[in-house]
Amino acid sequence: MKLVTFIYQSQRGIGALTGDGIVAAPDTLPSDMPTFLQAGAYALAALQASIDGGAPRIALAKARLLAPVPRPGKFLGIGLNYADHIGETGRDTPAYPTFFTKQSTCVIANGEAIHVPKISEKVDYEGELAFVIGKRCKNVPVEKAREVIAGFTICNDVTVRDWQQRTPTWTLGKSFDTHGPMGPWLVTADEIADPHKLALKTWVDGELRQNANTGDMLFNCYDMVAYLTQAMTLEPGDVITTGTPAGVGVKMQPRGYLKPGQTVRIEIEGIGTLSNPVIAQPDGFLVPAWV
């Protein structure tokens, strides 16, 4: 099932994408993704029953898709998780997973614009598989980790490189507004037989920049769940993005940083395509339109 968060006639809802339409979850179910996922199998079964029962479809053209989790409680990324990317950076292979935080206000949806900020031109793309937690969990063993993952989506871990390098935590350089494109939907875990056998490709305009397979991850999705939950409780709606392969702009000659007018497109096998235009940061001191 492809779960979506959408707006239709000024109302936000949760639904499933079926063809070119959306079947909205019944009114008795939560209307935000974390709470919907927390309801577990009951919520998924009720939504499936609506689909099977011929519930009305909302035309996709008449709705607006948001990021599947517009404001995750935790938005965590892992650095240096593909051998070829470690090689291009010249860094040592980490002995342990290296996690950082992206602030949730950076999240935008498929089709929304990535801003090149006025204070830096060193804006880079990072095509990544992401997974979303479906159950509150702690101390999860590797062999049980799949049971707490609700599904998978695509993330662009947009990074402002000069700001990233100012501090060892990387948080500011990873958290600029609009620098967390995610979507276009959440594919439930039952539809992805093995998340570590998926082709991943990133284009900037028509140029293929990244071409890899998720099987090349140093620490896989289940390793990440097991490691993180030794330290913290993960909760429904938390998003973990799993690292990027080689081909980032900072390592190109000349540098392949993003410029206004370009489009970044990331495709992951079995999930779909995340595409976002790039624009200059708009003038003004305003509340962002996507909030």
Question: Which short descriptors sum up this protein?
Answer:
Fumarylacetoacetate hydrolase, domain 2; 2 domains; 6 helices; about 15% helix; 19 strands; alpha+beta; globular; about 290 residues
Q: What does this protein structure show overall?
A:
It contains six helices and 19 strands. With about 290 residues, the protein is an alpha+beta fold. It has two domains: about 1-65, no CATH class; about 75-280, Fumarylacetoacetate hydrolase, domain 2 (Alpha-Beta Complex), CATH 3.90.850. Strands 1, 2, 3, 4, 5, 6, 7, 8, 11, 12, 14 and 17 form a twelve-stranded mixed sheet that branches. It has a five-stranded mixed sheet with strand order 9-19-18-15-16, with no helix packed on it. The mean pLDDT is about 95.
In short:
It is built from six helices and 19 strands. It has 291 residues and is α+β, with helices and mostly antiparallel strands.
